[in-house]
Amino acid sequence: MTQIEELILEDEEVVSVEERQLIVYNDDVNTFDHVIKALIDVCEHTPEQAEQCTWIIHYKGKCSVKEGSFSKLKPMRDAICDRGISAEIT
Fold first, then answer.
1. Domain contains 57
2. Domain annotation covers residue 42
3. N or C: the chain end with fewer CB closer than 10 Å?
4. How far is Cα 22 from Cα 10, in angstroms, rounded to an integer?
5. What is the distance of C-alpha 56 from the center of its chain?
6. What is the CATH number of the domain that holds 69?
7. Is residue 39 part of a domain?
8. The pTM is what?
9. How many CA atoms does the CB half-sphere of 54 hold within 13 Å?
10. What is the pLDDT of residues 27-83, one digit of tens each?
11. Looking at the 3D structure of the chain, how many domains does it have?
């Protein structure tokens, strides 16, 4: 389910910002260390958080590694994909 965050501006105008998820997928090519390093560098995860996400990716096939607006997540998705890791924004 998609979450909608409503921002109320000073003039009472309501603007909706759709929250998206950056999903990283498992593959048989990339090592744990490579994915962990990508999550630390690109998504600013702590080493522990990156390792936990990597284990979820390994066992579940995918993991939501970041949430936010499309414009915030797109550069992260592009950087992860540039490292040869499958990712998409949903």
1. yes
2. yes
3. N
4. 31
5. 13
6. 3.30.1390.10
7. yes
8. 0.80
9. 21
10. 999 999 999 999 999 999 999 999 999 999 999 999 999 999 999 999 999 999 999
11. 1
